[in-house]
Amino acid sequence: MKLSRTLIKLNHRRNAFFRMLFLNIQVIYYKSRRKDNVLNLNSKKVVIYMGKGIGDCLILSELISSLRSVGYKVSVITEPKCAFIFDSLIEVDGVILKKNKINLTGYDIFIDPYDNAHEIAAKIRLILNSDFSYTIGFNTHIYDKNITYTEYRSHFSSRFKYIEEELHYNSNIKCIQLKPDADIEYEITEWVSKTLGKKKLVVLCPFASNEVRNLSPTQCSDILNHINKNEKYITIILGSTEQLSNLPSSLNNHFITDPFGTFDSAITLVKNAEFVISVDTVFVHISSFYDKKLFAIYNNRVIDKAFENNFVFSPNYSNATVIFTDDGFNSTEGGKVSRMNISKLLSKVDHYIYNSK
What we know:
Rossmann fold, 2 domains, six-stranded parallel sheet, 16% strand
């Protein structure tokens, strides 16, 4: 049985190797036909290849908005799970869902803000099956313009200046750009006001897309008990019903939950918070949009063998305090947040509470 599983794995690897080899041969031929291809500065229809998560979409809202501000029509290729964010929160001119085969026509410029290792096979198929006039990417041989990039200890948005240079424009937009629904904001802000009275709201985001980065129930308990010693604060925990059910029932009186349970409501709760504690970079980026006092926990992971998450997807604003785990350096998953001594966080929170006006 063990031998059989080993043979199956070897066969899968061999097939993957030959698929990539065949795709790369196609790219060589494709590039040979485009060797003299140059950017047409009159091009105005752009499509951007988005990352896998909501956090990627939030960060790339800066690039989207900067391109649209100088007259480009911007569409995005995104995961189906992220498409909702482009309904109104991030303004774009078109949304294309990632699927097995995408054939695009009528777009002038294709922009891939990521590196070679990120979904490379899907990107090769995309450019081979589409008729882009000009393609731009980082650290890869498959595009018309390859931008050599080594700033893996800089924020991801540092890449955008190279795209601006390539497209010969300059934008004053240098941060995340969101357009929350005004009616939803009003409704939730009213609920916060009635629920809290004169107390201040603390938003706790203890759950991440990977369980390695989750706070443990014990850590959540320690945080809640510590904050509740100060009677002027009420803590709301953001998470799904399933995630919240993993917290001990003894904590039920120590926090409140979001009765609306939507992404829009979570955004507005962050807006209304006195401060935010988060292991989830989605709420890190939302906090940055509102310039909220933030305590963010990072676990030293490395993405795609290059991106140092502590830096590349950092809060990137001065009102944020970052706490790092003590392990997980240079690893794919990073250190387990549940093993972190939570006193590292609580001492920072105390310093803020007792020194803020």
